[in-house]
Amino acid sequence: MGFFSFLTQEIAIDLGTANTIIICNDKIVVDEPSIVAIDRRTEKMVAIGEKARQMQGKTHGNLKTIRPLRDGVIADFNAAEQMIRGMIKMINKKPRLFPPSLRMVICIPSGSTEVEMRAVRDSSEHAGGRDVYMIYEPMAAAIGIGIDVEAPEGNMVVDIGGGTTEIAVISLGGIVTNKSIRIAGDDLTSDIQEYMRHQHNIKIGERTAEEIKIHVGSALSELEEPPNDFRVQGPNQMTALPIEVPVSYQEIAHCLEKSISKIEIAILSALEQTPPELYADIVNRGIYLAGGGALLRGLDKRLTDKINIPFHIAEDPLRAVARGTGIALKNVDKFSFLMR
Ligand SMILES: Nc1ncnc2c1ncn2[C@@H]1O[C@H](COP(=O)(O)OP(=O)(O)OP(=O)(O)O)[C@@H](O)[C@H]1O
Known about the structure:
This is Cell shape-determining protein MreB. This protein is α/β, with parallel strands linked by helices. It has helices spanning about 50-55, 75-90, 115-125, 135-145, 185-200, 205-215, 250-270, 275-285, 300-305, 320-330; strands at about 10-15, 20-25, 25-35, 35-40, 45-50, 65, 70, 75, 100-110, 130-135, 155-160, 165-170, 175-180, 230-235, 240-245, 285-290, 310-315. The model has no long low-confidence stretch (mean pLDDT about 95).
């Protein structure tokens, strides 16, 4: 450790559409929803992460909540910068004489354009990053799952996040085939919102729809261990009177069908483009599922039955990308060929 190392801080950031995780000294120090609340009059940030999420859908005229990322990429540059800065401040609670200079590894969707990458780099630099390295999300997920990414073997990772589903075949330290589609957890949530409006005449917000997904979301209409129905309250669209309806996992499975089929098609198309030797490795090893979407009930079974290759859910799938980004940070030199 150099004499001036106390002036440098190393952090790994999984900047996600739904959640942002920061790792520092091998520990998860921030794990918050990617949301900020901004005062419209001053344009200053008044809340961040879980606090801002509590305000979502409940704000008055002077306050707005913003999710700075949409579909895996920065949609609101200012809000993203304020969010990254605010989350980094959460780590450094004690005041310091000199703010540390930051060396960071941050992950990006594999389908990012040069402009989208530039936005991530600029936001990170404006938030205090001096050395900013970027790594593709599926590569970070593979490292986080514990795959030897440098081996001459094919491994397929499907990372279903909030905004994007990233499908990649990795071998010899590179991404051989990749497919990034903008259908993921957020789309499943809005499918549920739409379904509740149409089917039950009940108006619900994004937070309630996500709760339904987590409580009774399913990729199969027959589950071995079915969850209990979930009771949803809200205003009747026609009368504005309060109503309460029980929602079953079967109806949610039905309403998610279209989006899940699109994910299936993308996986099949990535497999189609995979060279035969690597394809054989994947059939033998199975396919790894990461990201919050991997937690959807029955998804692994549905994909295994449909594609005829076993699907394995990564350990703690919501944090696989962050874990991998943390490992890449510790081995920046070893993994330099993986960084942008
Ligand atoms: N138990 C669950 N069942 C289904 N979906 C879930 C569950 N838990 C979390 N999710 C969903 O997972 C998504 C968030 O996953 P994750 O944190 O991996 O995404 P992200 O990294 O923020 O997004 P992206 O990688 O697209 O930028 C959200 O849409 C959330 O609703």
